Structures are given as structure tokens and as C-alpha cells.
Amino acid sequence: MSYFKIDRIIEIEVLVVGGGGAAARAALSAAQAGADVRMAIKAKWLGSGSTATAFSELLAIAAAIGHADERDHPEIHYEDTLDAGRGFIDPELVWTLASEVPDRIQDLIDIGLNFDKVEDGKLVQGMSDFATYPRTCRVNGVTARHILVALAKQIKNHNVPIDENTTVFKLITDKNNKISGALAINKDTEEMILYKTPSVILACGGAHHIYKYAVGTSDMVGNGYAMANELGVPLINMEFIQIGPGAIQPSITLLSGPVWKARPILTNNKGEDILEKHVPQHVDIDDVYNHKVFPFTISTAAYYLDTSIQKELESNPTPNGGVWCTMRPGSESIVDQKMPKTKGVLKSKGIDVFKDKFEVALVAQCMNGGALIESPDGTTNVSGLFIAGETAGGVRGPDRPGGNSLAEGQVFGHRTGSAAAAYSQKTTSNESLEQETLAALNNLNSWIENSKGKKDLVEAVESVKETMYKNCLVIRNEERLDTALKHVNELERSLEAGEYQINMQNISAAIDLKHMLVTSKAIILSAKTRTESRSCHYREDYPNKDDANWIKSIYVTQKDGEMQVNTRQWLSKRVSERSESKL
């Protein structure tokens, strides 16, 4: 049989894994710092991931620049973010985010990003959840993509090479637990690539596509989490996942908070109004609509909307596993006022919201957990490994304030890029890289050699998505989580026992399955351990918030191939300095 060998060696100072907003900012900052940097992207540049495809009525980037209200300052942004996750997130990371994002906004303006402005030239700023003052900045309704395109132009100007359709699947370390390289497969050429590098930045997004329905693109299955965890980096806050309603046909369209102000009617496949069916009599259905935001939370009466959807997915689903959504007669003016972008996007997909009923289900949007970073520079417990964006953990807890996601990508993307460049320029090469690479290749080839079974990889991947969707969505309990864990463990056992047909043509799919299972198990174990309900984590067998025992993070580590669960509480720190906006 044929075996994998190294087809190409690329020697660089900084390898950025990923192609979204955080990865792009990291690559640009590393290049600006003088490093020889290269990007490896699992799919198409500017056509995959969350940043390139993100959409919401409220999508924007948060920065306390005080343009809408001069009382807003980074200290307020800091406190607002901590209030959403106190005890679960690192205050030092939160302060870095709040104090530095005004500078990153100025960077974007300097490279030509044209934020929406009011007549006096100040930036338009909107309110978001958990914000004391309006602080989200936007660009023509598609903020994320505009940020990415602006960064891409600068990356091109710096002649940063971009390897598309290239899956980095293995990080190589030396005997001192220092990064010395990374292995990747180019899916177009089937080449095995060795990146010889002392610095790797993992900014490859989240893992929402371990669920049946999710935003972004299908390549987001947790590769970054699994690779980091394999090296001993803890995965923290993994039970907190942002999930909420979205139109599912012909493609996913999130239905954010403003949509529900129009009070659309949700019915099951029998034609029953699901809110009238499931909302208790003592709860006003108007309160459910009025409090509904994206994502799901147990904190308000809006809880009933998401849980009602899930109950109907399991009993009276529409053909594609959702519920029917129709706009109320006479709601035209409020639809045009509150959800014009959503109406337009749905129309572009062939749905007239005033005439058509369309299918709605629960959709995974963002991982609030991630691989633990240990400093504002995105460092980890592995020398030379830096992590940014949604792959990073420690700055998001049970809730994530609106606008912070794009802000995190710019702040920590910049910091990791600069730090990785500095690290690489003072680090000597690993003389034993060849031996360590050979060992990794031997393991890969042995896996292929021993995998001659008849089970189908595609079916296994779909079964993970179905299992996570059924058992680890918004309604969780011990029985559901045990069912999910049993299935994941069985798939892991089958994969290790060679029961799948794995060859050089489908090895990328096999690697994805392996990484999906690592990520799924981390989520399930974290959700099983947290015996309370809080924010987006709802345990119907433990329906109450338990502040006495559970204001702390859960994290999982790998030891001898087994996952271990631990807890950590973050102590608040006092902000001693004010960071004034330069805008």
C-alpha cells in the first residue's frame, strides 16, 4: 500500500492556523513585526468560517469609545463583561479586551474600514446585551466580513502566503514541550506538508458543526480544541454554547433578538401553536417574545421559546426537523422596522416572510469555551503555542456580551501575532524535528494500515451531529448526557479498533471525526459535571442556579489518553489605570 511521507517542507517563523478575523489580524500583526509568517486555512480564504459568513441584525464590534455616550469608558466595558462571567473568566484578559479594543478600532479605520458614522463624523454605536452604554460599532450591516476583507488587503500587501484547503492536524513538540512544527494535508493535492516553525497560532474558530444545525461552514468541527488538548492545554467552559433559533432552509439564517419583536407564530407539523402549547398559564407569552434575544438563556421568560422548539423537534417536527414560522397578519411595519436585514436575506434565499411559512430550528452559533490561554498574549502551557479568537478559552463564560466576539478577534489576534513574532525570532530550531515528525507519520500510517473495517466515516460524522443535537442542545439532563457520552465513547473505540475504512483519500475526514469526538466529549463531560442551570446551560434535572457551589469554571485535560475534569475559580482584579480612547 501507499504510505504518507513528507511531500513538502515549509520553513517559517510563524504559522497561523485559520482564516477568520482573529487569524487575519494575527497574521498581519506578525508580518508587521517583521516575522516570516504563513497562513494555513482548512477551506477557502474569505469563503469559510464564522467571520466570512456571519450575519445578524445586531452584528457589530464592541468598543468603549464614548461616541454615542461620553460616559462610556473601558472600565465600564470591563465591568459589564465581568458581570456577564464573573468567576468564570480571567479578569486580566477581560481588561486587555476592554482597554485595547479602541486602539484596534483605530487600526481598522487607518487601513480603510469605513464604519457607519453620524453627521458629526463620530461612529454610530448601538446597545447590546450586558452593555451599560451603547458601544457596538458596525459597517453597513455586515461588519464581520468588512473587517476580514480590510485585513485581507493588508495581508496581501505584506505578501503573506496563504495555503487554502490545508488541514493542519498535528502539532509537533520537542522533549521540552516546545513547538517545533506542524503537519498538514492539502486536500487538493493530497500532499503531506511539514511546517517547520517555532511558533503556531491556533485561530481556527469553534466547533458548532458538531451539531446538526450550525452557522459558519461545515469545516468548523473543533480541530483547534483537539490539537491543543492533545498537548495538555485545558479546555475550559466548554458546556457554555450559544444556541438559538434560525431558519434552516434552504440554508441557515439566524433569527436574532429584533426578529421576535414582530411576534412571529411558531407551529408544529400538526399546526399547533407551540408557545400556547408549552408556555405555562402563569407566564405571559408577550413576555416570552419581548425578552427573546439570541442566544438561549434561562435568565428570562424567553427560555420557553427555545425549549418549546426543542420539544417539538422531538415530537411533531417539520420535514427537515424544525417548526413552522409565519409572520402575523398586519406585522409588515414592525418587520420592516425591526428586521429589515433578516427579511432581505431570507428573500434572497427565496422566502417571502409575508407570504411564506419557513422552517425554524435551533442552531449552534458560538463556543463560549475554548483552549485555555494563560496571558493576554495568547500564550499557553506549551512554549511557542499561541491561541486567539473562538479557539481561545478564558475570556468568555456563561454569557458573552454582544460585540465582544469581533472585539476579541482583533485584540487577541493582534497580541498573539506580535508575541509569536517576537518568540520566533529568539528561538533556535529543533534539531530532533525529523525524528519527531517520523514518529507522527508512523502513527498516522499505522492508523490507516489497521483501519480496514466496513463502517462508514460519513455516517459516523452525521451520527455525532445527531447525537449532540438531540442530547446536548438546550435541554440537558443526566440521561441525555449519558446517552451522548456512551455514543461518543463507542465511536472512539471503533475508530481506534480499525472498524472504519480509512485510506489516504479520506484521512482528512477520519481526522475530523477524531477531533469532533474529543471536542464533543469535553462538552458532554463539562455539562454532566455542572449540576445546575445557568445562562445557556440548562439542566432540567437541576433547574436552579447554584451560586454557592458553581461560580467556577470546569475544565478538562488529557492524561494517558483519558479526559479528566477539574474546576477553577477566577478572582476579580481591580483596574488601576484608565485607557483613554484615541478616537
UniProtKB/TrEMBL annotation:
Pfam hit, one: Succ_DH_flav_C
List each copy of the Fumarate reductase/succinate dehydrogenase flavoprotein-like C-terminal domain by range: 463-569
Give a GO molecular function annotation for the protein.
steroid dehydrogenase activity, acting on the CH-CH group of donors
Q: Where is the FAD-dependent oxidoreductase 2 FAD-binding domain?
A: 14-406
Which InterPro entries does UniProt cross-reference here? FAD-dep_OxRdtase_2_FAD-bd, FAD/NAD-bd_sf, Fum_R/Succ_DH_flav-like_C_sf, Fum_Rdtase/Succ_DH_flav-like_C, SdhA/FrdA/AprA, Succ_DH/fumarate_Rdtase_cat_sf
Keywords for this protein: Flavoprotein, Oxidoreductase
> Would you indicate the residue range of the signal peptide?
none
Give the protein name, as stated in the record.
Answer: Succinate dehydrogenase
Q: What species was this sequence derived from? A: Metabacillus litoralis
